[in-house]
């Protein structure tokens, strides 16, 4: 594991600056470029796989539904991008990057498309007009036709809830978020919330008063946990399933500000195990999502379709693992 000092040395800033950035300290005044460099170096130092280049040259359109600035709010997508870039480089592929809805400018001479994020039916239709060989990473909007690399949130949810119950928790809350397609205002159904409700209901433990939903951000994690503290008081659950790590980091700060002991009074578990999770205080327990491998697998699937002309679609679930730390 890289230390904060290692990151600081490579970026050229102080260790305290790195620590405050990784803890999403809102009072720190640094540029987005500095934040981006710190997150990228932290990710790079954790990504230690070495592969030799293969003598294959392909031109791939990489469609990302978040900008690199938006990645700073949730470096989950930065990690997927990192995996795609490194894997493509190892195969000597040329990646041409586009942002969502930038369809008109996509080079028609590409060999295929990797699309990261959430895409609706109309967007899928537009992409298929450009090229039939498409791999979606982090969603599966074209089931049965295009390849997809996805997370098994049913297993993740069961893993978290079963762990809490094994530790004696029966009052388990949920803090989650919702997303929208960028061309609509309708929220996308979140599988984490769906499976939380399903498993808690199965066990006779579901309490709607302990479910709080906003956006998938550090700020909303802080706001929603404060809302839970204020509205529930002594009835605050002893454990919270957090839908992602930024929410968990914000919630952790709210608990610390309210002098609520973690994990003695409230335990929390996030999802993704982003690189910064191990650097926050106390270090965050989280379900490890192998985001770099998601990106790598997206490249592998697309090259398989291109080189072998595979016509049957594949959906790949990337495994996950609970990382228990101090929350």
Radius of gyration: 20 Å
Distance between the termini: 19 Å
- CATH class designation of the largest domain: Alpha Beta
- Helix/strand-derived category reads alpha/beta
Task: Write the CATH architecture name of the largest domain.
Answer: 3-Layer(aba) Sandwich
SS field, number of helical segments: 10
The largest sheet has its strands arranged as 2-1-3-4-5-13
Helical content (DSSP H or I, runs of 4+): 25-40%
- Unreliably modeled segments: 50-54
Indicate the mean pLDDT.
88
Account of the protein in words:
The protein has 327 residues and is of the alpha/beta class. It has three domains: 4-46; 59-151 and 290-318, Rossmann fold (3-Layer(aba) Sandwich), CATH 3.40.50; 153-288, Response regulator (Rossmann fold), CATH 3.40.50.2300. Helix content is 39%, strand content 19%. It is built from ten helices and 14 strands. It has helices at 4-11, 15-22, 32-46, 76-90, 121-130, 153-166, 191-202, 218-232, 245-257, 291-308; strands spanning 59-64, 94-99, 112-116, 134-137, 147-151, 172-177, 179-180, 187-188, 211-214, 239-242, 267-272, 285-289, 315-318, 320-323. The strands form three sheets. A six-stranded parallel sheet has the order 2-1-3-4-5-13, with helices on one face. A six-stranded mixed sheet has the order 9-6-10-11-12-14, with helices on both faces. Helix 6 (153-166) crosses helix 7. It is globular and about 60 Å long. The model is unreliable at 50-54 (pLDDT under 50).
């Amino acid at each position: 594991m890289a230390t904060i000092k290692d990151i600081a040395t490579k970026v050229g800033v102080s260790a305290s600056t790195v620590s405050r950035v990784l803890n999403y300290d809102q009072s720190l005044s640094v540029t987005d470029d500095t934040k981006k460099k710190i997150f990228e170096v932290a990710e790079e130092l954790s990504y230690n796989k070495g592969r030799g280049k293969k003598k294959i040259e392909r031109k791939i359109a990489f469609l990302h539904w978040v900008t690199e600035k938006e990645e700073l709010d949730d470096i989950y997508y930065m990690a997927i991008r990192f995996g795609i870039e490194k894997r493509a480089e190892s195969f000597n592929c040329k990646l041409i990057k586009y942002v969502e809805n930038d369809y008109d400018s996509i080079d028609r001479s590409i060999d295929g498309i990797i699309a990261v994020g959430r895409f609706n039916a109309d967007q899928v239709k537009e992409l298929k007009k450009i090229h039939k060989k498409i791999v979606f990473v982090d969603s599966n909007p074209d089931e049965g036709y295009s390849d997809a690399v996805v997370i098994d949130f049913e297993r993740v949810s069961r893993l978290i809830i079963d762990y809490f119950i094994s530790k004696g928790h029966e009052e388990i809350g949920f803090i989650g978020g919702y997303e929208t397609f960028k061309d609509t205002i309708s929220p996308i159904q979140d599988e984490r919330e769906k499976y939380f409700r399903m498993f808690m209901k199965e066990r006779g433990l579901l309490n709607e008063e302990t479910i709080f939903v906003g956006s998938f951000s550090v700020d909303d994690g802080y706001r929603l946990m404060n809302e839970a503290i204020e509205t529930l008081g002594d009835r605050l659950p002893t454990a919270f399933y957090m839908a992602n790590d930024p929410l968990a980091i914000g919630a952790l700060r709210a608990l610390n500000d309210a002098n609520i002991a973690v994990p003695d009074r409230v335990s929390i578990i996030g999802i993704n195990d982003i690189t910064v999770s191990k650097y926050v205080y106390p270090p965050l327990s989280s379900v490890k999502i192998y985001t770099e491998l998601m990106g790598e697998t997206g490249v592998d699937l697309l090259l398989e379709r291109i080189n072998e002309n595979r016509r049957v679609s594949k959906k790949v679930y990337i495994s996950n693992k609970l990382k228990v730390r101090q929350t």
